[in-house]
């Protein structure tokens, strides 16, 4: 049986609009919806995998704007030496119940590394996929 908190998070994350700010366009993503624009971007950078990761609001507990900014700066500092193709991104609640969460779109990251980084920054989930496939919500809870 699915826990009520997980069900609520799953519903909220599933309705979220994820936006990747790349070059001259914004690519909009949704969980389980394939994006041709995203596949084109991956091909342009010769990447086959990607993740969207934030350090904001650990375990969905709201932090101040300044705390989230510092956490995301630490995430960026950790990722930049390892992944040259990073773009700013945001997770946006279209109903307006919560503030947009700054994130990073990381090309070329494998699933295991993406999960490890998401866990390190105390996230409930990350968005991950491979070229040609729709974005998948990966839950990071330890069973």
Task: Describe the protein in words.
The chain has one domain (4-139). The protein is of the alpha+beta class. It is globular. Helices cover 32% and strands 28% of the residues. 28% of the residues are buried. The longest helix is centred in the middle third of the chain and has 15 residues, at 65-79. It has helices at residues 4-15, 36-44, 65-79, 111-120; strands at residues 17-22, 25-29, 49-53, 86-92, 101-107, 125-130, 136-139. The mean pLDDT is 92. The chain contains 4 helices and 7 strands; from the N terminus they run H-E-E-H-E-H-E-E-H-E-E. The protein has a 7-stranded antiparallel sheet, sandwiched between helices.
Largest sheet: 7 strands, antiparallel
Q: What's the order of the H and E elements?
A: HEEHEHEEHEE
Note the total helix count.
4
In terms of quaternary structure, what is this? single chain
What number of structural domains do the residues give? 1
Give the overall silhouette: globular
Helix content: 25-40%
> Could you give the order of strands across the largest sheet?
2-1-4-5-3-6-7
What is the strand tally? 7
Q: Provide the low-confidence segments as ranges.
A: none
Mean pLDDT: 92
Structural class: alpha+beta
Summarize the topology.
Layout: H1 4-15, E1 17-22, E2 25-29, H2 36-44, E3 49-53, H3 65-79, E4 86-92, E5 101-107, H4 111-120, E6 125-130, E7 136-139
Antiparallel strand pairs: 1-2, 1-4, 3-5, 3-6, 4-5, 6-7
